[in-house]
Amino acid sequence: MEQQLDFLVDKVVAELQKKLSELGEKAPAQAVEQAVEKVVEASMQPGAQPSVEVNGAAAFQSDVSEEPERTAQIPNPQWKEGLDELLTSTPARIGVWRTGVRPLTKTMLQLRRDHAAAVDAVYGEVRQEVLDQFSLFTVETQYDNTENYLKRPDMGRILTDEGVRLLQERCQKKPQVQIVVSDGLSASAVDANLKDVLPSLLDSLKSYGLSCGTPFFVKGGRVASMDHIGEVLEPEVLVMLIGERPGLVTAHSMSAYMCYRPRKGMVESERTVISNIHRQGTSPVEAGAHIGTILSKMLEQKASGVKLVL
Amino acid sequence: MDEQWIQSVGIDVGTSTTKMIVSRLRLGRMSSTFSLPRYQIVERQLLYASEVHSTPLIGFDEIDAEGIGAILQEEYRKAQISLSSIKSGAVIITGETASKKNAQHIVHLLAERSGDFVVATAGADLEGVLAGKGAGAEKRSQTIQGTIVNVDIGGGTANAAYFQRGRAIATVTFHVGGRLIRLDQQDMVTYVSPNIQAWLSAKGLRITVGQRISLAEISEVARQMACSMLDYLTGKERQISGLLVVGPQLRGDFPVEELTVSGGVGKLMEGAPVRSMADVSRYGDFGPLLGYVLQQEREKGTYAVNWLDPEQTVRATVIGAGMQSTEISGSTVHIKPELLPIKNIPILKLELTQEQLANPAQLHQEVAAIYQLGERLFDKTTGIPFALAISGIGYCSYALLQTISQELSDQYRHYFAESQTMVVICETDMAKALGQALALRCKGAPEIICIDQVRVEYGDYIDLGEPISGTIIPVVVKTLAFDEKA
Amino acid sequence: MNTKTTVLGQTYQFRDLKEIFAKANEDKSGDQLAGIAASDSRERVAAKQVLADLTLADIRNNPMLPPEEDEVSRVIEEGINEKIYNEIKNWSVAELREYILSHNAGENDIKRISRGLSSEMIAATAKLMSNLDLITAAAKIRNVTHCNTAIGQPGVLAARVQPNHPSDNVQGIKAALYEGLSYGIGDAVIGINPVIDTADSVKDILTMTKEVMNKWEIPTQNCVLAHVTTQMRAIRQGAPADLIFQSLAGSEKGNNAFGIDVKLLDEADELMRKEGTSYGPNFWYFETGQGSELSSEAHFGIDQVTMESRCYGLARKYNPFIVNTVVGFIGPEYLYDSRQVIRAGLEDHYMGKLHGLPMGCDVCYTNHMKVDQNDMDNLGILLSAAGVNFVIGVAMADDVMLNYQSTSFHDIAAFREVLGLRPAPAFEKWLEKMGIMENGKLTARAGDPTIFM
């Protein structure tokens, strides 16, 4: 009996909610008018005045990057609803149709556009204001120029002498957690995600009561530059937020490489990685929060990579 | 950790029969080592199925709670399962409302005797869905383009669930069941459920307690009842057949491509032809006849629907309850393990639009409106008044996260100052970040439980189990109502 | 063994076979990164000149990586037919090149000779061949293999459909698979690169692909390209796998970096004999690619073409159904631009074919290489002309999981149409039955994935 009652109440609530959401557009239906009015009144009470503090004006400017259009082009599919189901199940470029055995012009241009974005990400530079927002200063590796960076990964693993001097001058030594940001193979990954990943990570460190050294930016960095930085600053754990090799679905994907007591000669299996951090992939804020958890476990277990139990 | 087993129990206390099963569910990692952890149930094994017991009754229509308890105790012993090892599952108490007057008593008793997690009756809608899953209709729907409906016919009610492309899209319950009309060995009608009187009158059928009834007469009642139910399910006619419906009527047209019949009556469809009154009344009710006339309809092919054999008949519901009721939340969550498990939390749903999210004043109002609704619907409690399910956020930036968490926490503390625990369920993978943001603001007052990637709707209740390996939360969503749209 | 020559008035003295082999290579960023490349064109020609005059016995008698130190070298040594080798051991590399290209040498003659050749000898001929030499030589050789169906016949261009998904969503994989099938792609294999390295996930994908194959009676084979040990676990749990996959390197140390050795491959081979679901006799799928040994510092100062050839020497032991060189996946530090990628693709295809292998090629590039889709069009056509057994089909060439570009379903349909090539015979029959293809041409129905729903 009780359940039947609950059930009815819920039905009414559901009804109300629907009507509420329609309010802006049209008058509420006659049958539930009164009830709706009550709810509306309630939400108009003085106590419910908006008192929202906006964190930074940029917050509500949607930094919309052009989302690729994904509509099926097949003129007469055998099952139209089925086609929608297929399209929502994968980001792959399907349902694109053809002219003869070649793709339609629009599809072809979309691919070229996305490739252009990916190439730009490789050859681009991180925007200074993104780094300034988190007071990151810049050190460089010995990469010299982009062509050399691509051909000589070894040079992206070593900081310049000037870089080492800057670290020694400006960074806290032997911090519990060292955060490093690097462009890697996608400068735009840093532009797109740092503002979401980094503060979420800092919140997480705060939640776990972990202390953080002086974060900075490495230009022309490879993942293994963590080892050189480890030698210089001797952090207990280090996390490097670095741009990934761009793909066409997104050119802005970021990875977090984490390591316990980084030093020269570390092998890949000693690093813990969270990859695919971007708008359509692993949520940047969720990744930031989770990285904090991983770092705290590394400190607890004094290990990283395959030896770390998550 | 790559995998872990949990034990789940299903109990189905019906009007005529009671059964239980124990299953084990394997949780496997379903994420790469380079992404956030994600676990899913990757395997379901039936460990033990009890025999089908007659439901012990006190008098005519009251379930004997102690009797049920005794049955279960014995079955647990036989299955060699300890209560403490049960981590999930569901109990279904079915049948006519009249039999449920001591439902509360049974629930408490079961909570004591069936393991810590397992509790609570589910409504007819969930029952229908679980039976549909147990009968294999959900799985089948993934392979066809149209809609499949499974109807689970027991002693007191028939629970139907419609599935399309792997999703339950609607449910409906009928006063159709084997024990709605009872007979003795002398062909004397001993009971006619009051719930079918209106329908009987509308159909011009006459059957009264004390009447001696012929095979032709009772066959006609059974046939009409079966056909009314099929009329309703297939949408052929819903005026008169609608009189058999328990609770809300279906709100949409669902062209049915395939049909399965499970439950005790589904099982009876497989039986020998019913040719005499002795055949009819062998269980003291007209169940065998109901099964037989359904089988005849299937063979006649009057209805433009493809009848299939269900994977389970009499145990469809209990199998669904034991093996299919549990889900797993996203594995990056914000919880306090000592606050779990929590049970029977009603869902309030906050559906946000991009416009509302982009406008702080609008967002503030939306949160206020939903909290005010919660305030009026639910009693003040120091516990958990409801779980807030948030959807529509899409991409969540850090700035937006801050705005949302501020609105949610500030206003929660305003409206539900006495509540010591706040439960939030996100649609997308953001529970850890949101939980962390809320916790940093609330500083323990209230405590925060925030999980994600569980689908809930208005009218659902939710149980959250004890975390497994720290962050894997078994979740049972108890769907009591259906939003009748695909 | 002569290691000295004079080119354009300058005398070059090479230290050893490794140096000659490395410097005789066409320009590759990987050899530069390893510090073993020729410093200029003149030195390159000098090395080629010295190499041309070496005998096959010189190469065998001066092992760059001795069999005592490396099991891949042992496998290659053990695979050599001594009788045939003795017939030709005094041939120079130049003579071998000319023999292979001559009209006197028919397909069977080349196949016989190849049994007496080591991987290093085959690599040596590649270094003396122009791109068109590589195409001409490879086009003479057809290596037909059979798993559930046969591919590799003359006039056939098969394709792997590669319906990868960024989170291994089975429905999403199915969606891209349907799209590929509707373009007539998938006769080589339905092959998925998984993100999730668990046996459960691998089993799910194998089961799904098998169900689709059974439902539509598709004459092909399925495979999930997880690590071989994960596939073995899945197979032991009852997963239906027609093919078993593994990436190979050209040295024992390189294979160790992949987490494999010959013993493990033998074990997997045994398992497939017992529990594989296909007809056979070929049930291996190998992938290789120039540069992987250098990336794991397992190249021993040997150039990447030679190391690649050694992969084929190892692959040959297992009579694979398909071998795929993933030519442009590894990145610009090994193959910098389209010129290098195209060269490597042709070299690999030729060397594999000469090993008797059913060679396919993932004609592909990553976004940090100086390559674009036009270059893939070029290499795809070149390889199709050279008689490649199969190429890779990805929806619009964009792999949403591995984040690189390969050849598209459209591209493969175009290769077939332009060069008059056909899908594998059994598969073409099936396409006709499904109404997707008629007389070797796609019908109006082709390109609609919902026909499989």
TrEMBL record, chain A:
One of its GO terms (biological process) is amino acid metabolic process. It is an enzyme of class 4 (lyase). Its EC number is 4.3.1.7. One of its GO terms (cellular component) is ethanolamine ammonia-lyase complex. Its main location: other. It comes from the Bacteria. It holds the Pfam family EutC. Its cofactor is adenosylcob(III)alamin. Binds between the large and small subunits. GO terms for molecular function: cobalamin binding; ethanolamine ammonia-lyase activity. Keywords: Bacterial microcompartment, Cobalamin, Cobalt, Lyase. Adenosylcob(III)alamin binds at V223, E244. Pathway: Amine and polyamine degradation; ethanolamine degradation. It is found in: Bacterial microcompartment. It catalyses: ethanolamine = acetaldehyde + NH4(+). Belongs to the EutC family. HAMAP family: EutC. Catalyzes the deamination of various vicinal amino-alcohols to oxo compounds. Allows this organism to utilize ethanolamine as the sole source of nitrogen and carbon in the presence of external vitamin B12. The basic unit is a heterodimer which dimerizes to form tetramers. The heterotetramers trimerize; 6 large subunits form a core ring with 6 small subunits projecting outwards. This is Ethanolamine ammonia-lyase small subunit.
TrEMBL record, chain B:
Transmembrane segments: none annotated. The keyword Flavoprotein does not apply. InterPro entries: ATPase_NBD, EutA, FtsA/MreB. GO terms for molecular function: lyase activity. Keywords: Lyase. PANTHER family: CELL DIVISION PROTEIN FTSA-RELATED, ETHANOLAMINE AMMONIA-LYASE REACTIVASE EUTA. This is Reactivating factor for ethanolamine ammonia lyase. It comes from Brevibacillus parabrevis.
TrEMBL record, chain C:
The keyword Lyase applies. GO terms for biological process: amino acid metabolic process; ethanolamine catabolic process. Keywords: Bacterial microcompartment, Cobalamin, Cobalt, Lyase. Binds between the large and small subunits. Substrate binds at R160, V161, Q162, N193, E287, D362. Signal peptide: none annotated. Its EC number is 4.3.1.7. Adenosylcob(III)alamin binds at P194, Q246, S295, M401. It is found in: Bacterial microcompartment. One of its GO terms (molecular function) is cobalamin binding. It is an enzyme of class 4 (lyase). GO terms for cellular component: cytosol; ethanolamine ammonia-lyase complex; ethanolamine degradation polyhedral organelle. Pathway: Amine and polyamine degradation; ethanolamine degradation. Pfam families: EutB. HAMAP family: EutB (MF_00861). Catalyzes the deamination of various vicinal amino-alcohols to oxo compounds. Allows this organism to utilize ethanolamine as the sole source of nitrogen and carbon in the presence of vitamin B12. Belongs to the EutB family. The basic unit is a heterodimer which dimerizes to form tetramers. The heterotetramers trimerize; 6 large subunits form a core ring with 6 small subunits projecting outwards. This is Ethanolamine ammonia-lyase large subunit. It comes from Brevibacillus parabrevis. The gene is eutB.
